[in-house]
Each structure stands twice: as structure tokens, then as C-alpha cells.
Amino acid sequence: MPGTIPAMTTHATAGAEMKSWDEHTWDGKRYDEVTGPKQTTGAMTVAYSGALEAVGDMRFVMSYPDDDSCVSTAYEVVTGTLDGRKGTFVLHHTGGYRDGVADATVTVVSATDALTGLTGTGRITWAQGEPGRFELDYHLP
Fold first, then answer.
1. Among 79, 14, 91, 23, which Cα is nearest to 48's?
2. CB-hemisphere CA count at 13 Å for 94?
3. Which of the residues 50, 54, 90, 91 has an alpha carbon 20 to 30 A from that of 43?
4. Strand, coil or helix: what is 130?
């Protein structure tokens, strides 16, 4: 549109530290007590530090074809400060686990308070035994 200034994309990075993890098969057994193909559901709490200073509360569903990999989808409610703006936003995660690395793409689906209107996509990568790395390319009005 003539006269419209395009929105600038901001790139944010943050470390991610797992604070809690709870995962069970659909029939209630701990995920690591069942070998081979299985379906699980669970919850995770994450503390973010960096451009994102926040706590994330995630609910996920995973499908394991074997003991060494899975595909997953999740929703995470993130509450805190993104580049100095306070609020809450929801991320949709799509990813999985393979070769010792959890990796997911994330998409912002809604936001509140000073983050209202937030849109963006990014990635979270987590090598087993290491802190995670969160990256988000976003727009804010």
C-alpha cells in the first residue's frame, strides 16, 4: 500500500532452562518405563533469560516410533518480558527429538498486555544435557 511503512522484524534470543518435566504414556505409565513405540502427554516448565525474561508453562503430546526419537506438538503460555515489554503470549510448538537434540519451530498464536498484537515465528533447540536456545523473529505494533 502506498505510504505504508513495512513492519520491522526484531530478532530475540534467550537461554532456556528446564525447571520441571512430567511425561506419561496415555495409559498413565512413566514415559521411560515403556520401550518401543508409544504415545505420551505431559507438561514442562521453562525459565527463559536474555531478550526474553519469562517463565513458560507447556503442555505437549508426543509420538515415539522407537526409543530414540519422537515427533511432538505443544502449546506454551509464556509470561514475562520480551525486549522490555511485559505480557503473556502463547506459542505453538511443532518438532521432535532425534540424535540427542530436541528441536521445534514455534509460532506466536496470541498475546496480551504490552505484547498485544505480537506476531512471529522462531525455533527452540535443546541438546541433551545442555541449556536450550530460544530464537524468535517477531513484530509488535
1. 14
2. 4
3. 50
4. coil
